[in-house]
Amino acid sequence: MKEKEYLWWQKGIIYQVYPRSFMDSDGDGIGDLNGIISKLDYLKDLGIKGVWISPIFPSPMADFGYDVSDYTGIHTMFGTMQDFDLLTKEIHNRNMKLILDLVPNHSSNEHQWFRESRRSKDDPKRDWYIWKDPAPDGGPPNNWLSVFGGSAWEYDEQTGQYYYHAFLKEQPDLNWRNPEVQQAIFDAMRFWLKKGVDGFRVDVMWHMIKDEKLRDNPPNPDYNEKMNSYSRHISAYSTDQDEVHDIVRKMRKVVDEFDDRLLIGEIYLPISKLVRYYGEDNQGAHLPFNFQLLELPWEAKKIEAAINDYEGALPDEGWPNWVLGNHDKSRIATRVGKEQARIAAMLLLTLRGTPTIYYGDELGMEDVNIPENKIMDPQALNEPGVGKSRDPERTPMQWDDTRNAGFTTGEPWLPLMENYQELNVKEQWEKKGSMLHFQRRLINLRNGEPALHIGDHIPVYTENNLLSYMRKYKDRKYLMVLNLSDSQENFKPDFNWRGKVRIATQPEMEGEELGGELQVKGNLGLVIELD
Ligand code: GLC
Ligand code: MG
């Protein structure tokens, strides 16, 4: 029998660059493409395969680039198309892959398409967006709410109709039921694919089609006042409609016109709904992002159940993936604490499925407190008090101990963490026991070990705060024992084993031969190669 071949995005690790905050080359305080180019050796040496860059396209920046005003250009703030071509070439020279963000659900209100669409009711582009007459009382056409607060409908004086925006009013939703819209975005995808881009991470994929009849969303019984206003409803009719799967399949077809490209979907849904995005016969997204580790409480049994649910729900040949952080959620080191952030990294890098690392998490960067008068994020500004600010997890990357952590010679667009003198790449790279050194070794082990990057997942033993599982490929076997608390736990598996500790959160244990029952100290995580 021929050996099964695995693709780059199955074996390799993905790293998310938030371009505004990664590296600034021109002193304007905002990261840019030349900045990213100057740090590619770092990513290569770290062991990254796929570099995903959040939006770099022309945009008024109402939502920091997730409001695109030209799908085939580069924002001058980030650089030029030449810079982009160089970036692509330099990534490929290092045998890495480039993944772009695609934001097809909505454009900027300053996009030419929307300017035309809003001109008149019979403009040829009118139907490119979702326009509706007011309700009989003059109010919005239905009860749908914006994720960023308030009604999702904006009234437009000029033509006396409302348009729909799932996010900011500066982000009108495109009408994906219109074949012209589909073609326009598919052509934009081809533009980048022809340039050599290796794939896309598709923004809010599950939002792309809405109920044709625009029925009201039902109330959410679990809503309370502390939640943002969007949580008042269950988005039964405004998201995750059956027809979205036809669109995803079409996007996949576009990607498949080219060799070896990747389609990722950003999807916040429960597992049973999430896995549908793999599509029938896996002709949908290659990787519907699995965000369970962003949302679950840090409890061994819940995490174990989630892993097993996910493994069980995956379609045949559907490839798993795990995400521990992104530009929309509190950083892992803040959510679970510094010690447990190491356990979390060990989990991410030893689970079955493509891991995605959020920039800075490899250093243990934490959320940075941003004073109220400095908040930039529209999600927080729109709903003071309940809208979570995403600024804290978007602060500049910490490269060294010079001014602004080496990120910029100017004024950084968001403040840096105070601890950057110790917590930076230069300081930690070679330093044994540092978070970066620890993660670098985990990545290295994973990349070189088939049992860890393609092996099967086998649940082993989970009790109290202890999570353990095995990974196996042919005769190679690894046992992971992770204590998700700071108190001692007992590992009492019902099988015999012996092995050698390859990586431990307490480095003095590395090389030790272990077997049988273990007393596992608080915050201890072990990656054990079995005999
Ligand atoms: C996605 C992005 C988020 C953005 C939103 C609207 O969730 O990750 O940053 O605000 O879509 O485009
Ligand atoms: Mg700059």
Structure described in brief:
Helices cover 24% and strands 17% of the residues. The chain has helices at residues 8-11, 33-38, 40-46, 81-93, 112-117, 179-194, 244-256, 271-274, 292-295, 300-313, 332-336, 338-348, 378-382, 425-428, 435-448, 450-453; strands at residues 14-17, 50-53, 97-102, 131-132, 153-156, 161-164, 199-202, 262-265, 287-288, 321-323, 354-358, 456-463, 466-473, 476-483, 489-491, 498-504, 513-515, 518-520, 525-530.
Please give a structural write-up.
With 531 residues, this protein is of the alpha/beta class. 24% of the residues lie in helices and 17% in strands. The protein is built from 16 helices and 19 strands. The chain has helices at residues 8-11, 33-38, 40-46, 81-93, 112-117, 179-194, 244-256, 271-274, 292-295, 300-313, 332-336, 338-348, 378-382, 425-428, 435-448, 450-453; strands spanning 14-17, 50-53, 97-102, 131-132, 153-156, 161-164, 199-202, 262-265, 287-288, 321-323, 354-358, 456-463, 466-473, 476-483, 489-491, 498-504, 513-515, 518-520, 525-530. A hairpin with a 2-residue loop joins strand 12 (456-463) and strand 13 (466-473). Helix 6 (179-194) runs parallel beside helix 7 (244-256). The longest helix has 16 residues, at 179-194. The protein is globular. It binds alpha-D-glucopyranose and magnesium ion (MG). Residues 24-26, 28, 30, 32 line the site of magnesium ion.
